[in-house]
Each structure stands twice: as C-alpha cells, then as structure tokens.
Amino acid sequence: MSQHQRTVRVGLIAVLALLVTAACGGTTRGSGDSPTSNRATGSANPDAALVEGLDVAFLPKQVNNPYFTVADGGGKAATEEFKGSYKEVGPSEASASSQVSYINTLSQQQTDVIVTSANDPNAICGALTSARQAGAKVVTFDSDTKPECRDVFVNQATAEGIAKNQVELISAQIGGAGKIAILSATPNATNQNAWIELMREELRKPEHAGIEIVTVAYGNDDDQKSFQETQGLLRSYPDLKGIVSPTTVGVAAAARYLSTSEYKGKVALTGLGTPNQMREFVKDGTVEAFALWNPADLGYLAAYAGAALASGRITGAAGEEFEAGKLGEYTIGADGVVVLGPPTVFDQGNIDQFDF
Ligand code: RAM
Hints:
Layout: H1 3-23, H2 47-50, E1 55-59, H3 66-81, E2 85-88, H4 100-108, E3 113-116, H5 125-133, E4 137-141, E5 152-155, H6 159-173, E6 178-184, H7 190-203, E7 211-218, H8 223-236, E8 240-245, H9 248-259, E9 268-271, H10 275-283, E10 289-292, H11 295-310, E11 321-323, E12 329-331, E13 337-339, E14 344-347
Parallel strand pairs: 1-2, 1-3, 3-4, 4-5, 5-13, 6-7, 6-8, 8-9
Antiparallel strand pairs: 10-14, 11-12
Helix pairs in contact: 3-11, 4-5, 6-7, 8-9
The structure holds alpha-L-rhamnopyranose.
C-alpha cells in the first residue's frame, strides 16, 4: 500500500473509530492514557470492522521451525477474521541480525503491522524504529526487543512462571538433587536468556539447594547442532542427572538423541516442546513431562494486538484493553506487555489431547 493510500485509510479508520465510539457510548481515555486512544465499548469485537484490509506480516525467529509454523498460523487465522491481508517472511537461521533485511523490506512495502519474535534484543531495534517512523505498528511476540523499539510485546506467560515451571519439572524428575545442564536456543535469544536467568534465581531457593547447573549449551535452534550439543553434554558430564531445554527445537533434538542412547531413562530431559514433536519420546519413556503454551493462541493474540494498535484503539500504554477475538479481552501491563496465560504441562496422561 502506498503512503498516500495508508494516510487516507488510517484517516478513515480514525473517523470510523470515533463514530463507533460515539455510537456505543464509549469515552475518551482518562489521564495517563493517550488522548487519541478512543475505546468503543458494548460490542463483542468492534476492531474487526475497523481494520479490514490491514497488511499484517509475521516475521518469526526462523521460518523452518514447527513452533513458528503453528504460532504464525494463529496469526493468519486472526488476520483472516478481521479481513486483513496476512503474510509470513523470515530467515531460515535464527542468527542475531538475520531479521534486519526482512524488516527493511516490510517497511518499504508500507506494511501496516509487523509481528516479530526477536533473535536478539538489540540487533533489530534500528530497523524496527525506522519501520515505525514510516507508519508501521510493531508487535513483538515470543521473544522481545528492547521495549522502546516496539509498541507491544505479547508474552506467552510470565518469564518467572516459565522459569519456575522448568525448575519444578526437572526437580521432580531427578528427585530434587543433582547436576543439570541447560540446552538453549541461540546465545542472544531474549526469551531463553530471561528464562535461564530466572531459573538460576529459582534454584537459589533453599528447596532446590541440591540442584546445580553445570553449563549452558547452545543448539542455536538448529536440529543438528542441538543433537550434537546433547551428545557433547552427556560425554562431558558423566554424572549429569538431567537436561532442561527451553526451546522446542532443542528439546526435540535432545529427546531424539537420548531415545536411542544408553542414557535413555537414566538422564532426565524436560523443557519447552510441542506435543506433536515430543509425543513419541513421551510414549517410549525418554521424557516424563515437559511444558508449552499454545503457540497458535500466541500468534492469534499478537495479530489482534497489532490490529488494535493500527486502529488506534490502543497505543501500548499500561491499562489499555482490547478484544482478541475468541480469546476475549486483554489488558496491557507495564512496559507494553500483554501476557497470554500460564503454560501447560504435557505427559503420558494428556499428550494425546493436543495436536500442535
Ligand atoms: C523455540 C524458539 C521460541 C521459543 C520456543 C519455546 O521454538 O526458541 O522462541 O519460545 O522454542
């Protein structure tokens, strides 16, 4: 869409927003909120009518990762609901600066909403800032940038909640004591680094005094590298009791390695995985339990947050509310963060109820 077309359409959207607000008896937000953020109330999903034709682009950490296929699929479903136009672009490797050229292109194409999971908190900031100056609304989801480089971050769950969940899972599986290693994604990943830091904090609590993290290995969200790193961990630390891999790529590769090795059933493995990738390893006894949120819901919520920003319903300020289709109403928290909800734990008992 050209700059002119966008200006005209954004103007129309703003007028429509005002009309709907007036018709529904909505009010202009109070002090602390943006004066341009007019909220329509009384209708199930007023934004849907206001964002028709919106160009929404999803830019994942990497395109060939089943987790992002599902997450971005949720974004596509949401975009179709509000009759926007959806596309997914992105690198095949999750390296720090691999997303920059994609953001620049999306900005040149006058994309209305860019939804991205950052491979690095800093590397894409400049490109995102330029895109915002050119008129795009930027939503990060899954893995954040620095807050000043985006409008809203849609977090899958609180980082503290994820860290606690991971520690509880591994502790239960190794009997509360022993050496563990972490198999992470890329060394720069905002999300994994935050979780690992908080896992270390959690492990400093007296009830976890017997558990020691011996090292953090990086599989770069690459299947082969994650597989080899797992092998390396088991060779380097013969007394390892468990591995925590808070990445869907890492935990699936580690499970595949363990499942045919002498360590199967002896070294515990948990982390964040998709039920479809982990099912066979739960059934063959390699993995007892692991966790994840619903990636499709995460992408869906992120797309609706983008639509709410583009329609002027929200600006990203704390306390603002927006409708996210079938997921209902969400409120923006501090630093422009929206939280999807707590993660689910999967094991033999429930894994067959999930298909993603
Ligand atoms: C991988 C990615 C993603 C993370 C999940 C758990 O797919 O690193 O960012 O949220 O794992």
